[in-house]
Amino acid sequence: GALLRVFGSGLIAALQPQIRKTTEWLYPSRPGYIAQSGLDESILRDSLDPGARDVMASGAKLPAPVSINTLFECFKGPVLIAQGALDPLNDAVDRASKFGAIREGVTVSLMDLGHCPMDEDPSQCAKVIKSWLNKEQVLKSSDVARAM
């Protein structure tokens, strides 16, 4: 409890001065847009909330994440992974190719965006999602037609 709260407070204190630099790093294609959109200010405001340190500390208490392979084994429906190819936190291109190879029905769309493509360019993400939904609807319609 108390040790985790101290850790959470220390982590927030260390990260707050780096918010602008971090968002510019995470969103490489439109760093000016991120500043203009107010994302930096929103992150700072949220980090000042009295419960923020408890949120940071609670990460240490979370159960181990379920692997993507396990999720894909449980869910057999169509999946869209809209990935930012410029994500500096991982090798996004290699990761995307691995996701696409897991099973049929997984569509990967790589965009020239960073860590959170939906923040960096919401309209491009919306186009990718709409295109995928339209394609899935056409596939579903053709499956129904073949069954008749």
Overall description:
This protein is mainly alpha-helical and 148 residues long. 63% of the residues lie in helices and 8% in strands. The model has no long low-confidence stretch (mean pLDDT 84). It has helices at residues 2-15, 19-26, 31-37, 39-48, 52-58, 68-74, 92-101, 117-120, 122-147; strands at residues 79-84, 106-111. The chain contains nine helices and two strands, in the order ααααααβαβαα. A two-stranded parallel ribbon has the order 1-2. α2 packs across α3. β1 (79-84), α7 and β2 (106-111) form a beta-alpha-beta unit.
The secondary structure category is mainly alpha
Q: Unreliable runs, pLDDT <50, ≥5 residues? A: none
Strand elements, count: 2
- Coarse morphology: globular
* Overall residue-averaged pLDDT value: 84
Overview in brief:
The chain is mainly alpha-helical and 148 residues long.
Key terms:
148 residues, mainly alpha, two-stranded parallel ribbon, 9 helices, 2 strands
Question: Which helices and strands occur, and which strands form pairs?
Answer:
Layout (H helix, E strand, L loop, with lengths): L1 H14 L3 H8 L4 H7 L1 H10 L3 H7 L9 H7 L4 E6 L7 H10 L4 E6 L5 H4 L1 H26 L1
Helix pairs in contact: 1-5, 2-3
